[in-house]
Structures
1.
Amino acid sequence: MALLSFLFNTKPKTASAAKERLQIIIARERSGRAGPDFLPALHQELIAVISKYVKVNPDDIKISLNSQGNLEVLDVNVVLPDA
């Protein structure tokens, strides 16, 4: 019986179900929010990571999110100090 239930399994795969749920959540988030609320946190995390390797002024890291048609482009501009 175990072999038959394995071959004719009608339960949906968990990976495809999780992917569907994630797509629904992302679509809902995009349509329901007014602006990108993750940019300030992303900016602070980038400052922390870059500062581990290079001494950089936090004001020299610029982040912007631009919409181009149905695409969103995250632009990160880091001005590194002279060597």
Note: The beta strands are 61-68, 71-78.
2.
Amino acid sequence: MTALDIDFVRAQFPAFAEPSLQNQAFFENAGGSYACRQVIDRLTRFYTQRKVQPYAPYKASRLGGGEMDEARARLAALMGVATEELSFGPSTTQNTYVLAQAFRKFMKPGEAIIVTNQDHEANTGPWRRLAEEGIEIREWQIDPQTGHLDVAQLESLLDENVRLVCFPHCSNVVGEINPVPEITALAHAAGAFVCVDGVSYAPHGLPNVDDLGADIYLFSAYKTYGPHQGIMVIRKALGALLPNQAHYFNADTLYKRFTPAGPDHAQVAASAGMADYFEALAVQHGHAGTAAETGAFVHDLMRQHEITLLQPLLDAVKDRNDVRLLGPATAETRAPTVAIALNRPAEPVAAELSEYGIMAGGGDFYAVRALSAMGIDPNEGVLRMSFTHYTSQAEVAKLIEALDRVL
């Protein structure tokens, strides 16, 4: 496997040349990544040249609408799905809420949805609220020591009443990568659909949703080098079954069915810059192939670099007796989102790290249920250090040195 050209990567992100950010190592990427140059350039162009109502016959409008369509088509192709199966919304939280309203009408009282307590609240709260409509909510619970989701426990929760299984590709505090194809196969065998929250995974390589088998896959562009949009894949078979949530005259257009509000034209168009960036990475590293092959190549390129950088950080914290590492201690099985419990409030420690040029976060990160299940006081929270493929070895070394000073 080709090694990641970190100098090329960092040259694609204006933040690394920004004077106000010099000597600051960014380790709160799970809250939102830097935007790549290609996205920024497209956003600027749209606001300066295309900021008109799209899809009208005049040139600026045609170009604007074409760029919106381009973003949808190219991102869908990278993820191995049809263009109509990918849609944009204001955020993943709002996309999930709209989906929950569709399932509210689709399901009958007494039918069941399985959720986990490993999730960010955005992929559990909207579904849990359906209990008010008579829908049974079953909780697939994590191991209180490790945060692990045991697939065998899911099997015991599945029966003919379950219509939907909702779980994260990986948790934003536990970090362990869940076996999506295995979970999906189990759910489908029981007659249930699957909704995967990919917000904490997609920044580390866009998955091929067709290979995963998921019926719904959700992630956030602003955590994946793009603008503040939620991206939602709904496979056609399920999308046709669920009741339309948009204007009645948009019911026959799959990518509009579950986005009742008007899209942010500029941000949708700028999302094509994410595809520009992934394709530029592939070309720089000598890859040529179909869009789906390019998506897989870039995914593996990112993951290899992250795994190499992640293991030393895990080694630095896993055996300390003054902190508790959440999730696996092996880099291959997790995302580079590392949360540690300190037995004291985490936010002041994050503030101390900032004095050493480390940008990290402390808090509950909307994973209150997961922290509570693992015996961690959400009011104290955890210290979270998250990075992506644009992070350098020198920055990880700087973080480890700073941790030694503040812990």
Note: Residues 91 and 206 are 17 Å apart (CA to CA).
3.
Amino acid sequence: MKKFFETISNMWKIEELRNRILMTLGLLLVYRFGCQIVLPGIDSSQLGGLVDGTGTDQGIFGLLNAFTGGAFANASVFALGIMPYISASIVVQLMSIAIPYLQKLDKEGESGRKTKNQITRWLTIGICIVQAPTYLFGLSAFGVPDSAFLMGRGLDFMIPAVIILVTGCVFAMWLGEKITDKGIGNGISLLIMIGIIASMPQSFAQEAVTRWNGVGGPMMVLVEIIIWFLVILACVLLVMAMRQIPVQYARRTASGGYEKNAIGSRQYIPLKLNASGVMPIIFAQAIMFVPSMLGSMFNDTSVGQWIEVQFADIFGLAYNLLFAFLIIVFTFFYTAITVPTNKMADDLKRSGGFIPGIRPGKETGDYLDKIMSLITLPGSIFLAILAILPAVIVKLLDVQAGWALFYGGTSLLILVGVAIDTVQQVNAYLLNRHYDGLMKTGKNRKVA
């Protein structure tokens, strides 16, 4: 504990790091404040169906509510959250495979990156313009009565409300970019993380009170906490695990050429066990509302009724089996399009590097592709298990749904991934100033 407080003190001594941390906390506070501001024209006292979770704890809508920190259920000016920007980023990334212009931008360095970011921003606005009226008209399906709309749903309400929702999303996107530039950590990821954390204390308190006054008592609460820490440890292992491919580089001569027979420096190509992150879960979650929708369309048949019932329960067996299968499929798909093994092989060849025992060029690309396939399989299965773990916890331990969502799935993986990334950035500042990092042990290494 003493070591921890010494590290916090060292962080505060570095002026640049201190200013970045304060900037990050300030912008996150602005975002959380905005999540509590209800849209003009809506009576906040009649949002009981949303606030109590009626209809918003199922499927993709529960995911959106978690990512927005409750702004979705509060009918807030930030109700769309940062998800339109995430969707736009995914679309641009996927389209980069098929559109030559986007591929050209990837090769233009910083200027190409800026142009691509601008395209993403405009696409974000387009997605918001579509999602905002859909959200407003869909509030009735989540238990909001018509009387909650003080001005009705005419154009005099819809047009300003859509403008406010689009502006709120753009402002949240600006906050995320400012955190990345002026603060610490990835701004967009931190906004999602702070939204997820916002609902954690309430969910745990409800679970603790229920256990304390019901079955299990305080001992069951302790068991749940221990299991939760073990799941976090598993998430850390999944995020950090990687396969290191040894690479040999020919040593340069004074004239600038290469000594082919000389032993050069040896490095590694890190291939992550879970190179796709949480994207397979997000893709799969977005598709999982389709079976129940199809079942409702054909509910006049016994098969349609069975599908509607089975896939309406996000903790049911059929739902989670299909969910796990889709995650495994999307993990392979997303890894294949985001890890360019052939480009890695070409870059390695141009830089004078080679994998010992493997010929440069096509054979190196095939070898890297084979390794990625071998490590992606266990990674995808592990990711699928973590994604369906909340359902397992609910069935085995009878945990409340709100608290069970923190035992795995997208929420916990995002929390762990963003926390590790932020800690690594803080570590870089500490180690550059000759202090021990947050992930280091040993004596203080400050230079006198």
Note: Confidence is low (pLDDT under 50) at residues 53-59, 258-264, 441-448.
4.
Amino acid sequence: MQMLFGTGQNSREGSDLAYTDPLTGLGNQRRFVDKVDRLISDRSEDPAPFTVGILDLDGFKPINDLFGHTAGDDILIQVAMRLRAAMDGHSAVTRIGADEFAFLYPMVFSEEAASEKAKMLIEILSAPYDVGERTARLSASVGCSLFYSGDETTEILLHKAETALYQAKRSGRGKVVVYTREMEEAAKRVTRIEQALRRAVSAGEVEPHFQPIVDLKNRRVVGFEALARWTDRDLGFVSPVTFIPIAEERGIIGPLSQLVLRKATEAARNWPSDLFLSFNLSPSQLVDQNTGLHILAILDRTGFDPRRLEIEITETGLMTDPASAEKIVNDLRRVGIRVSLDDFGTGQSSLGRLREFHFDKLKIDRAFVSSILDDRPSEHIIRAILAMCEGLGMDVVAEGIEEEAQADRLVQFGCAGGQGYLFGKPVDADATLGYLRDAFRGASRAKAI
């Protein structure tokens, strides 16, 4: 017992183990924090800059799933060896998470130098890894932050590096982002919007607006797409392009979506029964197995006929977790809900998905429609999509129609459905009901004549 708890060699070894990652032999997060704390203390009187960074392996989980955990551990060991070899005598690298590594560059004083050093690490890690008789390739994303002031703590520096890493991951694989003061202001604004959005969802202040979907031949309205709109008492109008991604990233999208669907179905109960309601599901909702139950519970509560509801999902959402998405789609279709593939042609999936999933409708992305009049490739792509959908027995709606000439060209190509500002902008429930009453009166007068 004396040897275990004394001041001899075993005690030092135990201390070393507390600071060491057992898989790679690198230091762990505790070691990294200790090193940065000491460097901040050493430079307290003369705060010369230095760089910290967090490196995250891109796509490591799929490789781990494909090759197995033993091979995954072997790859992590190889990554650690490469990173250790890339450090000079002043620098250090540690493993702080499953596939995250932190590095410290005491002699890197500028954002430009930090970026170059990080790019070098990414390049080093891009070479193939031996996995038995096979090889695997990895990329990495890096976020860096620089110490400038004695007021900054290790916790603050790591938070800034994590924010930069998050931006790097959003930009695509193999990217480097160095934290800037502009990013700090952007991060604060995102936090303000998130807090306001949580309050708005809780208070039921996000509203559905409705955009008409028409039969292109006779311009008769056949349904409406529900779109979330939010005006905050302090922030004013917040674009869905801004708040929807924040809701998705911060875990608010589920409650937000349920609120908007409830309000949308309550409004749509007062429409003519032959009109359908179209509603979007986000990628994260296609991973949540409770999504179908939430939708059905809302329909039951509002008394809205499931056969009048269409759910729109994107190719990107489909690819997040295909097995989960397939189960949710099948559960919805089983009760009569139609399922539409949105933004076709711009996502990550392949034509094979149209064979594996049964969609009732396909929506041609506005990117093709906007250039249909002057871009031959767009014209050919739309023709090909329409021919494919006819063969698969799927309805088609072209999005983003803003000109009569675009609508005429789509009719000429055989496209049945259309949506866009030409037929109406999204408006609230009361204005939509007024729109329908005017349309009904117009149709009645036409019949009388």
Note: The chain is about 50% helix and 20% strand.
